[in-house]
Structures
1.
Amino acid sequence: MSQPTHGLLAVDKQGNRVLFLNPETFAVEHELNALPPRPHEKSIFAAKTARR
């Protein structure tokens, strides 16, 4: 299964969640919900994988 190369990131400050959305359907694909109240800072790093 291949990983997506693009998507949307949404920060829900009232619900204390970070949502990873499908860019075509806006469906929630992944969710981070173990965050402090009102998250507002984020860093995004591209994961590097070894090619075989």
2.
Amino acid sequence: MINKEKNFISVVIYVHNAEKTIKTFLETVIDTLEKNFEHCEIICVNDESTDDSKKSLRKSVPKQQRQVCLLLT
């Protein structure tokens, strides 16, 4: 059992040509982290995608999700 109050986790996700899958993936990661950690952050790095991954990332992160940081290159 995880003690939610004392744990902090950072997750770095490198995104490369994931336009079609990033929304579902982020929803799953956010849901899992929120259930298990009081404090968490997700850092998404767009790794020079040639598709619309950058646009999908922006759309996929709800504005109220303060624990998600987008690094769009």
3.
Amino acid sequence: MKHGATIVYNRINNEPFVDGLAKQISHFVQAPTVVSGYLAFGSDASFKSHWDTRDVFAVQLMGKKHWVLYKPNFESPLYMQQSKDVDVPEPTIPDMEVVLEAGDVLYIPRGWWHNPVPMGCETFHLAIGTFAPTGYDYMQWLAKQTQNILPLRYNFSDWNSDKDNIIKACNELSTMMTDSVLYDKFMQEHMANYRSDSAFNMQLFGNANADANDIPDDALIVSNIVDGRTLEKGYVITNGLKININDDSQYLLKKIIQYEPISLCNLLQKTDKSMSNDIRSAIAKMAELDIIELVL
């Protein structure tokens, strides 16, 4: 490591502090996240200049790093379009240089070349990658729906014979691409693939005699919902489930998302006091369904 090596910890989870940071960023960008950690010391670069194929938030937790960034010369690369695999020249004139110290956060959009270098001290940062769905993801998903396009089920023979069927299939595919119902279904399935780690509150949910009144007033409430925009449509997607919610639950979740992390006591103060028992029961039910996390 003295000669520039870096220890990389990929896909960090079940680490409460890291999970909390990832969840905050996930809620901010309304997209799933994956976290990696990078430990190094010395003053030599571990990686050559490169781009990432997802937007990244670099969170410096220890020491310092010098970051050099260059504008993209290959726009919006996908996961199979790594900088080492695409035939474009590496930029030589920086567009931004910054030193990150403990507590600093740097946002790096996908496609931006960058090269972080330690500064002669022990240094550790998290790279929180965000995975918003792309048009390419949508097309891959739509391809699985095209078995209902009849012209695509015909055998091919030659261009002159097949051209009209291909044109018909293109028209039908175009109609599917611009169908808002299919788009919403794709977004739901994409978000359903995301899992958010939650504390396992055995004292509450493993106790047959426990009820909503056993939730401590100082318990912190955090949403497990990645995309809060679905609230207006009367449902949420969390940890693989689509759950329909009523108007009261919508109101409560909006309050939680607005102020999270928020203690149960503070949440009760911001809502109708005559509804305290109902709110406690709703919180317990939402925690049971993993819509929210209770940090005790």
